[in-house]
Amino acid sequence: MKRTDIKRRPLADTTLSSLEPEAGAYRELDSPGLYFRVKPNGQKSWELRYKKPDGKWSWLGLGGYPEVGGAFARQKAADLRADASEGKNPITSKKARQAAEIDAANDTFEALAREWHTSRLSGWDAGTAKRILGALERHVFPSLGKRPYTSIMSMEWMELLRGLERQGILEQMSRVRAYCKDIYDLARVTGRAVNNPLEGVHKFLSSGKPENYAHVPPDELPGLLRAIRSYPHAKDVQLGLRLLTLMAVRPSELREAQWVEFDFDKRLWTVPVERKGRKKGREHLVPLCTQAVEALIELRQLGEANQALLMASLYRQVERMDVFKKGFNTSNLMHRILDDAFSTKATRRGQEAGKGNRDPSSKIQTDTMDRRAKIKAAAEQIINGRKIEMRSLTDAELTNILSEQKSHGTKKTIREHLTALGLRPLK
Questions:
Q1: If 350 and its partner were Cys, which of 62, 148, 317, 364 is the partner (CB 3.0–4.6 Å)?
Q2: Gap between the Cα atoms of 342 and 349, Å rounded
Q3: Cβ distance 133 to 170 under 8 Å?
Q4: Arch. (CATH architecture) of 3-101
Q5: Residue 39 — φ and ψ, nearest 5°?
Q6: Rounded CA gap, 247 and 317, in Å?
Q7: CATH architecture assigned to 109-204
């Protein structure tokens, strides 16, 4: 659009965007004192013409177009003209407003939260830091992140936390509340806030009914230990489960353990701080009993001479699985393989059936053995990257297979088991 084609002022947005450059720079009046400047290279910007205190006229840039639109430029020009009418220097007023805008941007809850997060990084491991920031980004920043933190009232925090409460994520709600309260404590001790709006909020939120973690009752523990020791298939899984019961470490710690961390002379396993996490800031020492040393020696004999990881073969199997990319880890694999065989329900059924003239412990072993064909087939499916619901194999189907084996005295392979169940054989 040519400047000679302008019909009205203030300039419409379509006019601003379509004005064509000329051989030399030119300005077009938009509103009192406000001009739209177009350079030969097509660059466009806003300028204010004002009179300085000494009576001379000068120009003051208000920003480039389209970053600064017409309505915003007119508002800025009106504010600066008002300052000039009161005897203030527009340049000084502009700088003061820019500083105020920067302060306002830094005073948002999100900016304060990220400052708090950065200040606490030295005390967290990478996983913890990512999890905390992710919780804030998901649950807090979308609704309150852009607000000045001093303007957010306790009632608004209560509303946000009760929203999480209604979703049933009580543990996450409690953590988010603790994070935000700690964030406000940072503002308070650095003189940027007087009160903490999250103080006392927890009294009016649901803490949920406390529940114990799932566990094996003492009277069922012997049956579980016997089932682990007699598991006939993946020997490294059997040994891994034995080591978990002997050393009481996390499955991930055992899965990622390396042979160089074990000192058999001192009978000590040193979990390095980078794997244990920096919560306590030191290495984690695990004493090795005689049974644990024997299991480790047996596990070492199963692997290759130069392998670094204890559970290297199982780790490679999990890495090949498609579901591994979705967060499926080795401990899940162990649990899935042994889920039914070592379930407390199966053990309890064995104990109840064993009451009478039969030995309860032998019934537990028999019940476990009867279910292993089912677990083996499902485990083979999982390891080869195809998931199958283990409970889809009914007891009747398994009984038929076992009866056939007993009557004919034959031993079927896994492929034959799957074919008998109407499932596609593994490739």
A1: 364
A2: 12
A3: no
A4: 2-Layer Sandwich (3.30)
A5: -90, 165
A6: 24
A7: Orthogonal Bundle (1.10)
Determine how many CB atoms are found less than 10 A away from the CB of residue 240.
Answer: 23
What's the pLDDT tens digit per position in 297-327? 988 888 765 677 777 655 554 444 333 333 3
Domain boundaries, the chain: 3-101, 109-204, 218-420
- Rounded to 5 degrees, φ, ψ at 339 are -55, -55
3 state SS of 44? strand
Q: Which residues of 278-287 are buried (b: 16+ CB within 10 A; e: fewer)?
A: eeeeeebebe
Q: Which two tokens stand for residue 378?
A: 């499902």
Instruction: Please give the structure tokens belonging to residue 286.
Output: 């695990």
Neighbours of 250 (CB within 10 A): 13
Residue type, 268: L
* Distance from C-alpha of 72 to C-alpha of 79, rounded to nearest angstrom: 11
Q: Report the 10 Å Cβ neighbour count for 145.
A: 17
| Token pair of 73 as six digits | 């430029």
CA torsion, points 319, 322, 328, 330, in degrees to nearest 10? -30
What one-character DSSP code corresponds to residue 62? E
Please tell me the predicted confidence (pLDDT) of residue 302.
82
- What does the alpha-carbon distance between residue 15 and residue 7 come to, in Å, rounded to a whole number? 9
Reference 292, options 245, 335, 325; nearest CA is 245
How would residue 376 be classed by pLDDT, with cut points 50, 70 and 90? low
